[in-house]
Write a structure and sequence with these properties.
Elements: H1 12-26, E1 33-35, H2 36-54, H3 64-92, E2 95-101, E3 106-112, E4 114-116, H4 119-132, H5 147-170, E5 174-176
């Protein structure tokens, strides 16, 4: 039986965060720069909102381990999406996103050809992916006992990790595909 792993960009939360980045970062900037530090800050705010939506002070299940579990699911999932974007930029020289034209209610593809990725943020993304490969990470528990999806998930994370590590070793932390 063949399975299909939903990558970060294809998940509902990934699409929601992508639209948030388009609205708050890319659109105001005129789709000029993929600024990873700003993207991570927006992702953190987005994740805090999601974690807060799962918290009910009257529910005894909302104890620290559950909050940590939810935080790992939301914020690490958001960093996974940003890592996926960085890898796309490295591989193609641009980040492609869709912008919703509110007048026509249609999406227009946009291409961002500059990226700001300081070494510190690159290292943070790599560290997050390394943790996500660990069996104790909450995002690894979604597959249960199913071996094939788990292997595909690990291959996806491993691919992103290899691409980021390869570019870190090259010293590629900032890029401009125009020149």
């Amino acid at each position: 039986m063949s399975v299909w792993i939903i990558k970060a960009r294809e998940r509902n939360s990934g699409q929601d965060l992508t639209y948030e980045l388009v609205d708050r970062l890319f659109h105001p900037d005129g789709f000029k720069v993929f600024d990873v530090p700003k993207s991570l800050a927006i992702a953190k705010e987005f994740s805090i909102r999601d974690v807060r939506s799962t918290y009910n002070p009257n529910d005894g299940r909302n104890h620290i381990p559950m909050l940590r579990y939810n935080w790992a699911n939301y914020y690490d999932g958001a960093k996974l999406l940003i890592a996926d974007f960085v890898v796309e930029f490295y591989r193609t020289g641009a980040l492609s996103v869709d912008d919703l034209d509110r007048e026509t209610d249609r999406f227009t593809p946009k291409s961002i050809r500059k990226m700001n990725l300081p070494q510190r943020e690159l290292d943070r993304l790599i560290h997050t992916l390394q943790r996500m490969l660990g069996p104790e990470h909450p995002l690894n528990h979604r597959w249960g006992d199913e071996k094939e999806p788990q292997e595909q998930w690990e291959a996806y994370i491993g691919f992103l990790l290899d691409e980021l590590t390869k570019n870190r070793q090259k010293g590629v932390a900032q890029n401009d595909s125009d020149g």
